[in-house]
Amino acid sequence: MDRRKFVSALGLGLGGLALAGCEKKDCPPTESGVAAAPEAEKKAPVQQTYEWTMVTTWPKNYPGLGVGANRFARRVEEMSAGRIKIKVYGAKELVPAFEVFDAVRQGSAEMGHGAAYYWKGKHPATPFFTAVPFGLTAQEMNGWLHHGGGQKLWDDLYAQFNLKPFACGNTGTQMAGWFNKEINSVEDLQGLKMRMPGLAGEVLGKVGATPVQLPGAEVFTSMQTGAIDAADWVGPYNDRSFGLQRVAEYYYYPGWQEPGPTLELTINKQVWDSLPADLQAIIRYAAQSENQDMLDEYTAQNNAALQELVNKHGVKLRRLPDDVLKALKEASDEVIEALVADNSEARKVYESYRKFRDESVEYMAVAEQSYMNVRSQLTVES
């Protein structure tokens, strides 16, 4: 057979094989007249999958805080169609509560869930990304972080520690805490041993109390044994689950120390930078979703828990006296000013935070606060 006939026969044979595997409507002819293979038969590129570890500062599966970390992990797995699977560990399962920051920074775990004010010893600016006394509410924190420049400052700060941070939960305004005696004046705080993290602990020290740093899992036992006289934890929903009503008689408000505490998701920055853009987006929006979902959960659960504490367990609900709150505010201003005095980066974060707070105070007084006051007044009158 001469060469031209061989090539012609070969072309017809290959064309026949291609057409035999598909219908005309599914396999449009190419320029050469040979039908193309269906797209469905082409192999999709193999996508990399990831199995990550998340360490947290919370007891395993703890209501609100710990469950929120679990929800975030589940969302990521669902949204990524299983490309990222995250195993969540409670405090002490892999690392102690206060070693989460270093575990993620060093790469022992890919992710962490906790609160930035625990890491004040790493950098004085960290408390601003959780809560500072008499600071921003949850709604205001979200505004500052997401639309007021806070996230950029947070990213720049944590990049120094090989971390990428996201807001990933909020409890809303907390309670002032549990006390084993009534607080009628500043004098009643003198020598009081109280579990109080972050800058609020330093504030207590300034007014004569003795602040104690404890992970949440140790609060109940420490109150029960008398190692501490008072404790700040979260609010009714979480405090009831810890059984704090069994070890303290008085429950005080308002939560001057944590008006809107943001919880953080931290990711090892090298791990984060290596992710494809679509998976980065999934993590970002899963964190944003949990940030709102947790606040919604606390909003829904706190009132029922408070009513149970008061009406069923006989807890004595009290408001801190005005002179105590005034003394705490004055001490807070001194502590925060000292915190940022010698650190330009902390000063920069503080100035941004304070500017947002001052502007928000003006609007909130006109909108949210005035409405709340009117609603309360008219509800009582009706």
- Residue-averaged pLDDT: 90
The main sheet orders its strands as 7-6-8-5-9-11
Listing every helix as H and every strand as E from the N terminus to the C terminus, the arrangement reads HEHEHEHHEEEHEHEHEEHHEHHH
Low-confidence segments, given as residue ranges, are 1-34
Number of strands: 11
Total of DSSP H or I helical runs spanning 4+ residues:
13
- Name the beta content range: 5-15%
Shape: globular
User: For the terminal residues, how far apart are their CA atoms?
Assistant: 105 Å
The major β-sheet equals:
6 strands, mixed
Estimated helix fraction: 40-55%
Please compute the radius of gyration using only Cα atoms: 28 Å
Which structural class best describes the helix and strand composition?
alpha/beta
Task: Provide key terms for this protein.
alpha/beta; 47% helix; single chain; disordered N terminus; five-stranded mixed sheet; 382 residues; six-stranded mixed sheet; globular
